[in-house]
Amino acid sequence: MKKNWIGYITIFLSILLILIYQKQEGRFSQLFSNEPNSLAQEDSTAQEKFLYGINVTDFTITEGRVTKNETLSTLLSPFNIPYQIIDELAKKSKEVFDVRRIAANKKYTVLTAPNSSKAQFFIYEPNPAEFVVFNLDSAYLYRAEKPAQTRKRTVGGKIESSLYNAMVDKGISPQLIDEFADLYGWSVDFQSLQKGDVFKVIFEENIIEDQVVSLSGIHLAYFNHKGVAMHAIPFEQNGQLTFFDQEGKSFKKAFLRDPLKYTRISSRYNLNRFHPVQKRIKAHLGTDYAAPTGTEIRSVGDGTVIEARYTSANGNFVKIKHNSTYTTQYLHLSKIGKGIKKGTRISQGQIIGYVGSTGLATGPHLCFRFWKNGKQVDWLKESIPPSEPIAQANLQAFNQKKAEGIKLLAQIDPSVDDRLLASTTHAQQD
After folding, report:
1. Which of 13, 121, 135, 404 is most buried, judging by how many CB atoms fall within 10 Å of its CB?
2. Does domain 149-252+387-426 have CATH number 3.10.450.350?
3. Which of 126-164 are b and which e, b meaning 16 or more Cβ less than 10 Å from the residue's Cβ?
C-alpha cells in the first residue's frame, strides 16, 4: 500500500513538473514570438509611402490633369468637399497661390484617407518645380518646391547645318542655346557658320523628375569658327562676373547682338532694295528678323523710350535712345510690351514688345533699325566697343583661371557624347 502511495506521489510530481515546464516554455515562446512581430512592425514602417511630404500610406490617391475651364470648385466637387471649405480656401489662397490661375493640362493629386469618402488633401502643380498643398480638413494651404538635382555637364559638337540644330541634337535646352548665342554674338556671325565649326560648353542645369527646369548658366565655353579658336573664361572684375577671351578682352558689349533670341535674318540693310509691298525700289534701312507672331522682342541695350505708338507704315513700334550716340527702333510689333511708353527707362535684354506684321509688312517679322549720331547705319557692320578688358592688377589671377579653363575645355571631345562632371541632389524646404 505504501509503495502505491509513493508511486502516486511520483506520478503527481512528474505531471506538476511537466506543467511548470510547459508554462515557462510558453513564456519563452511568447518572448521569442515578439521579436518577429517587432521586425514585421519595422518592415511596415519601412514601407510607408510619402508623397509631397505627406504620409499617404493607406490613402486613396487620385491623379489627373486639369481640363479646359475647370476650377477648384469643379475639381473638388466629386470628393464631397463642402462649398464653404472651397470658398474659404479660395479666399486664403490669394497670398499663396491664386486659384483663379489654375490652368488646363496642369497636374493635380487628390488624397483621401482610409475609410472616408471625403478627400483630405488637394495638391496642384503650377509648374514642374513647385506644388501647392490644400489641406481640406483645416482649410489651410502652403506652397513648396520639389527636390531638385543639380547636374554639371560638358557638351561638345560640330556644326552640320546650324548651331541650334547641333546643340539640340546634343540635348541642350533652347535657354542655354540663347545664352551661348548671346555670349558669342559679337564674335561670331551665326548666319554664316561653316560646316565643321566646333562648340564646347560646360554648364549646370537643375533637374526635377528627369526634366530640366532651370539653368545656373554657362561655366566655360569654346567656339572654333573658320579655324579661329575663341575661349570664354569667366572672371570677376569690379564686383561683376564677366566672360573674357584668351587675350583678356571682354565678351560683354554695350549692346546685345540680336533683338530676338536666336533667329534668322530674312532681309539686310540695302539701299537698293525692291519693296515687296510698294513694288518699287526703296532703301531698306533696317535688318529684318523672321520669327513667329508673338515672339518676344528685347531691347539690345539700356536706354529710354522716346516713342511707343502706331503708324500706318511702321505698325506698332518702339524707339529707344541709348545715349548721345546710339538710338534703336523696333517695327511691325503685334503689340507693345506692358508698361512700355514714352519716358520708360529700359534695361538691356528687357522685353519691349512682340513680333507681328502690323503696318507695311508681308508677314510676321521684326524690322530693327539702328542710328549712330543721328544717321541710320547697317547694324550688322557696326563695331561696338567692348567693356573694360582685364586690368593689369588682375592679370596674374586671370591667367591662372584661363589656364585651368582651357585645360578643362581641351578634354571635351566634340565627337563623343557629353559626360556628367558632377551631380548633387538638394531638397527645398517648405
Report:
1. 121
2. yes
3. eebbbbbbbebeebebeeebbebeebbbbbbbebeeebb
User: What CATH number labels 52-145?
Assistant: 3.10.450.350
Architecture of domain 264-381 in this structure: Distorted Sandwich (2.70)
CA of residue 51 relative to chain centroid, distance: 23
Q: Which residues of 351-381 are buried (b: 16+ CB within 10 A; e: fewer)?
A: ebbbbbebbbbeebbbbbbbbeeeeeeebee
Q: What is the pLDDT of residues 111-139, one digit of tens each?
A: 998 888 899 999 999 988 899 999 998 88
Task: Read off the pTM.
Answer: 0.64
What is the distance between the terminal CA atoms of the chain, rounded to a whole angstrom? 88
| Sequence-ordered list of residues with C-beta below 8 angstroms from that of 142, at least 6 positions apart, any chain | 96, 132, 133, 430
Going by their DSSP bridges, the two strands 296-298 and 351-355 should be labelled as antiparallel
246-291 confidence digits (pLDDT tens): 999 998 888 988 899 866 776 765 555 555 555 555 556 788 998 9
